[in-house]
Specification:
The chain has 603 residues and is of the alpha/beta class. It folds into three domains: 118 residues, Urease, subunit C, domain 1; 256 residues, TIM Barrel; 116 residues, Alpha Horseshoe (Serine Threonine Protein Phosphatase 5, Tetratricopeptide repeat). The chain contains 25 helices and 17 strands. Strands 1, 2, 3, 4, 5, 15, 16 and 17 form an eight-stranded mixed beta sheet that branches. A six-stranded parallel beta sheet has the order 10-9-11-12-13-14, with helices on one face. Strand 16 and strand 17 form a beta hairpin. The N terminus is likely disordered.
Length: 603
């Protein structure tokens, strides 16, 4: 799993052509005339409208001819086009460098909820808000709050009530927008309810996965703001909650997690193997319609939102389908990401169960929609495999319709609903005066076919117009970046055949002679190699690779965290302390480094 979370970079730059276009329209009034407005409030589409945008806000919306267009405005005749609010992806995991962030804007996704926080994300947000980096608006949570057995770079381990309350306090100190409940380790009941109580007192939402120590009903009643089921990761959340044997299922999941080995090669991962299949079969066979309806009514009454991530479930269930390997959108995905996307997940027996789960979730989402449960569109970008940044949000909307929602209801899951969920209705979610001008201009009517959200003629982001040519330029730039070869794939066989020193020499040679041909800026390329060497107890070699990564990315907190791990494993306490301290200095929220330092200081 660490491999997946190591696909981040720290480059801060924007395409000069895109930045130029954005700055050239910064202070100019923009008018879209003769456009069909679909404001997603639930009312009918409004034909022949004019939308006037001044600065980053919508100044006026009205019938063309009745709305005054200020002199000197940039006027776009949008006759035959359809205008919708900017889209939000409310379940995003991001592992690529920030230079890939325009993928969201190019797909009309103007906002994202980031479900796993690292130190660089708030910095990226500042760069975006200042106009120095092109990317979507970001709502950023914490690292995953989990049980205390596993200590990882992506987690905040919580073992008791006091630690749960402290996690909430720390989240506010670090400026997190919400607390993210993870799915790899289950919180204890006492810790969960302590966290819920402290979060309520301090006015910070807690969202994410429902730990198996509590039921979905209990989580909703405790104030959990959203349920974001993690596809095929531990308990099946809503599916188990709809079973007449829910208590037995939760107990079985708890026992499975208690035995979990914590290694990717382990045979007792709770979401793989015979035990997983037995639990899932029981959940499917004991699905209770009356229990489900009662649960859905409770979720609606408590305003507990549900983000089903149907796209991610489909990707898990059908990732072996040849069509995934030939998807034209792969040309926008980095070589490192493509590499781990193509790895073997699990057995054919497990995949068959995932397919059944996916089909059942389509039914459940349809039933929830009928019951009035509030939905958020989220894709789980970029994990699991074949969930494409920006692009997959449109897949998610189509799957909502397939599940039984109307096209308008599907649109609302990515527009009006996120604004309500975030308490930002004054700013986002509909097309109305006073709102921030994040808009998507379409060539065809999405209310007739939800697939028409893909037919983007232009995007207005913060009042700046990006016509189709500019969006294509963004994609073309990213396509060039994604063609860079994986330096990790080049070095791995050299390490095996000739040793680490030869691999490092080759790395330096390629970086000097072909700097644009390989992905030297992705820290995950070398971290992955170092992790493999560390797992093989080749401490000296792992340290050499991590040090090479630090040389390339000297301001990267994760690089020093991994160096600390390697030195600790090698028995070099002082060097481990030095690197953990440096990691913690670069990312004060890195609980992994903080815990390791505490352990070393007590020895």
């Amino acid at each position: 799993m660490k491999k997946n979370f190591a696909l981040l970079g720290l480059l801060f730059f924007v395409s000069s052509s895109v930045a130029h276009q954005a700055s050239s329209t910064k202070h100019r009034t923009l008018a879209l005339t003769h456009v069909m407005v679909i404001d997603t409030t639930g009312g009918p589409a409004q034909p022949d409208m004019t939308v006037v945008i001044r600065g980053d806000r919508i100044a006026a919306v009205g019938k063309s001819g009745n709305v005054r267009v200020p002199a000197g405005s940039r006027v776009v005749n949008a006759a035959g086009k359809f205008l919708i609010p900017g889209l939000w992806d409310m379940n995003v995991f991001w592992y690529d460098p920030p230079e890939y962030l325009p993928l969201f804007i190019a797909n009309g996704v103007t906002g994202v909820r980031v479900m796993l926080r690292y130190a660089e994300y708030p910095e990226w947000r500042k760069e975006i808000e200042a106009g120095r980096l092109l990317g979507p608006r970001m709502v950023i949570g914490t690292r995953w709050v989990e049980g205390s057995r596993e200590i990882d770079t992506w987690s905040i381990p919580v073992g008791n009530e006091a630690e749960a309350r402290q996690a909430v306090i720390n989240a506010q100190e670090y400026g997190a927008d919400f607390i993210e409940l993870g799915g790899v380790e289950s919180l204890s009941r006492d810790a969960f309810f302590a966290l819920a109580n402290e979060a309520k007192k301090r006015g910070i939402p807690f969202e994410g996965h429902v730990p198996v120590s509590v039921s979905v009903e209990e989580a909703s009643n405790a104030g959990q703001r959203s349920i974001d089921d993690l596809p095929a990761v531990f308990s099946e959340g809503i599916l188990d909650a709809c079973s007449s044997r829910e208590r037995d299922l939760l107990k079985s999941w708890q026992e499975a997690i208690a035995k979990f080995s914590g290694t990717p090669q382990g045979t007792d991962w709770p979401w793989r193997g015979p035990g997983f299949r037995t639990r899932t079969q029981l959940a499917l066979e004991t699905y209770d319609q009356r229990k489900a309806q009662a649960l859905f009514a409770l979720l609606r009454a408590n305003h507990t939102w549900f983000c089903p991530s149907l796209t991610a479930r489909r990707s898990l269930a059908f990732w072996q389908d040849p069509s995934f390997g030939t998807d034209p959108r792969l040309k926008y995905v980095s070589a490192g990401t493509r590499s781990w996307w193509n790895e073997e997940y699990t057995s054919a027996e497990d995949i068959a169960v995932w397919k059944r789960i996916y089909q059942k979730y389509l039914e459940i989402v349809g039933a929830m929609g009928q019951a009035g449960v509030e939905f958020l569109a989220g894709t789980h970008t970029e994990e699991p495999s074949f969930t494409f940044a920006g692009f997959s949000l449109h897949d998610e909307l189509a799957l909502f319709v397939q599940a039984g929602l109307t096209p308008l209801e599907a649109l609302q899951t990515a527009t009006r609903n996120p604004a309500r969920f975030l308490g930002r209705e004054r700013d986002f979610g509909t097309v109305a005066p006073g709102k921030i001008a994040d808009l998507v201009l379409l060539d065809a009517n999405p209310l007739e076919d939800i697939g028409n959200t893909r037919k983007i003629a232009a995007v207005v982001y913060g009042g700046k117009l990006y016509p189709r040519a500019a969006l294509d330029a963004m994609l073309a730039k990213i396509e060039v970046l994604a063609r860079r070869k994986s330096i990790g794939d080049v070095l791995e066989p050299i390490i095996e055949e000739q040793g680490v020193e030869a691999a490092i020499r080759h790395y330096r040679e390629l970086k000097a002679t072909q700097p644009d041909s390989y992905d030297f800026g992705d820290r995950g390329e070398l971290l992955y190699l170092g992790d493999h060497l560390l797992d093989a107890k080749k401490f000296k070699e792992a340290i050499q690779i991590y040090e090479l990564n630090a040389e390339t990315l000297p301001h990267d907190w994760w690089v020093y965290d991994s160096l600390g791990d390697a030195y600790m494993e090698a028995g070099k306490k002082d060097l481990a302390i030095k690197n953990y301290k440096k990691s913690l200095l670069l990312d004060p929220g890195n609980q992994h480094a903080a815990i390791k330092l505490k352990q070393l200081s007590s020895q």
